[in-house]
Amino acid sequence: MTTKQGNAAPAAAPEPEDDLRGKLDRLTLARKEGFRRMAQAPARPQPEALTRVQLKALGDEELARYNKARRRHHANMGPLVTPQMKALHEDMWDIIDSNDEQEGDKAKGAIGIDAFPGLGKTTAVLALARKFHCREIKDNGALTDEGDERWPVCRIGLTANASTRDFNRAVLEFYGHPGRFKGTAADFGIRALDCILTAETKLLIIDDVHFLKLRHKNGTESKNGVEVTDHFKWIANEFPITLILVGVGLAAKGLFDEGDRYEDADLAQMGRRTTPLGMDPFMINTDKGRSNWRNTLLAIEKKIVLADKYKGMVADDLSEYLFARSTGHIGSLMTLINRGCHRAVRTGTERLDIELMNQVKNDAASEKGRKALEQQFREGKLTTRRRGKTAPRTRNGDA
Fold first, then answer.
1. CA distances from 114 to 78, 111, 203, 252 (A)
2. What is the end-to-end Cα distance of the chain in Å, rounded?
3. Kindly report the CA angle at 143 between 137 and 146, in degrees rounded to 5?
4. Which residues fall within 8 angstroms of residue 200, CB to CB, at 6 or more apart?
5. CB 362 within 8 A of CB 314
6. For residue 385, what are the contacts with CB-CB under 8 A and spacing of at least 6?
7. What CA–CA distance (Å, rounded) separates 137 from 164?
8. Which residues are within 8 A (CB) of 202 and not within 5 positions of it... i.e. 6 or more apart?
9. CA-CA to 154 of 20 to 30 Å: which in 53, 176, 207, 256?
10. For residues 191 and 189, what is the distance between their CA atoms, to the nearest angstrom?
11. Which regions in the chain score pLDDT beneath 50?
12. 1 vs 6: CA distance, rounded Å
């Protein structure tokens, strides 16, 4: 990279010629090749931090490439290994690894990830699934003993009011099975089982389980919902896999309940075999909680690439502001940071501060809870500072 005067300037992180991660989307993850791309793609390098003088020295094309690299970097920061993700992963590994060592005649325990939106449950599950995929390929090879491709993980996203046939077809779609277009639910189920056995799949992730309707508003059972729940029980019985259900309000739907009626027996069996796990928002009512929040902000701060970034820009000067605007939800926090960085690059502000962040819009749920939290901060009822820590000072030295 050269400056307008022809002198060498620090190089921005190059865009990979084959940017595997840049081609991902949720539909891509619904197919085995797309999941492998996500699992095995190398981490994108962080662009080099340039000063304002260095930015000014770049030619128009070089500056455009550098800013594009920064936009992509800021839009894809993470996943951050938060305390919540770490705790969830420890519990999941306990279940997955113990299942893996069980002999084939034993029904394997399922996992139910039940948490509010914006807490990073899908991100956390995919992060673990990526590690599991890579571990299995490293330990056992890309091919099975029979010479078939090994696919350690299968991920399915449920759609609204999905039937058993829809679910089985989605499994076949993931593997690219030629028989995914015609057949009954039973036909698709047998083919799906064959795919899982042939590919030696060990994790079956079912996302958006909250789309499943077990009962209608009038209290009557939903035929599709009950059938799919029965199907999950069959999978847990017959498939040599760990079933991971991910959704919102799964407990409220009764997916883990034993019930008190004969008709609830199927749900009772699922409840006995499924271990419910969750994720919580950040809490700042203890020193440990405040430390977790600060450490997360420090990790984010390291990843930000802005010319006027300074130590404490996020972790100190914006700590309480970001907590109020995100209500402690990691998804809302990362949305704010991502959009704030984009605005800072686009406008030439090159730093994050309250004035700039006030112009950045966030999700409706966070904005709804923002005013109450800001009021508590103003009244001294809440703080993100650890006990004994004084109020941070800004870059300019003002309290």
1. 22, 10, 18, 10
2. 41
3. 140
4. 140, 144, 148, 150, 151, 152
5. no
6. 290, 319, 391, 392
7. 30
8. 96, 100, 132, 136, 152, 153, 240, 241, 242
9. 256
10. 5
11. 1-22, 24, 26, 216-221, 260-263, 394, 396-399
12. 9
Q: Which of 280, 324, 276, 246 is nearest to 83 (CA)?
A: 280
Strands 203-207 vs 274-277: parallel, antiparallel or unpaired = unpaired
Structural domains of the chain sorted by starting position, each given as residue range(s) with its CATH number in brackets:
83-277 (3.40.50.300), 282-399 (no CATH)
Q: CA nearest 163: which of 140, 191, 136, 186?
A: 186
**pLDDT score at 376:** 95
Q: Supply the pTM of this predicted model.
A: 0.84
Residue 180 tokens read as 């995914």
Phi, psi dihedral angles at 110 (to 5 degrees): -95, 165
Angstrom distance (rounded) from CA 310 to CA 198: 53
Pairing label, strands 274-277, 110-114: parallel
Q: What is the pLDDT of residue 269?
A: 62
Cα of 300 vs its chain's centroid, Å: 16
- Neighbour-count burial for 324-345, b at 16+ CB within 10 Å, e otherwise: bbbbbbbbbbbbbbbbbbbebb
Q: Are 361 and 339 in contact (CB under 8 A)?
A: yes
Contacts of 294 (CB under 8 A, 6+ apart): 315, 319, 384, 386
Spatial contact of 189 and 231, defined as CB atoms under 8 Å apart: yes
Cβ-based neighbour number of residue 352 at 10 Å = 26
At residue 270, the pLDDT reads 65
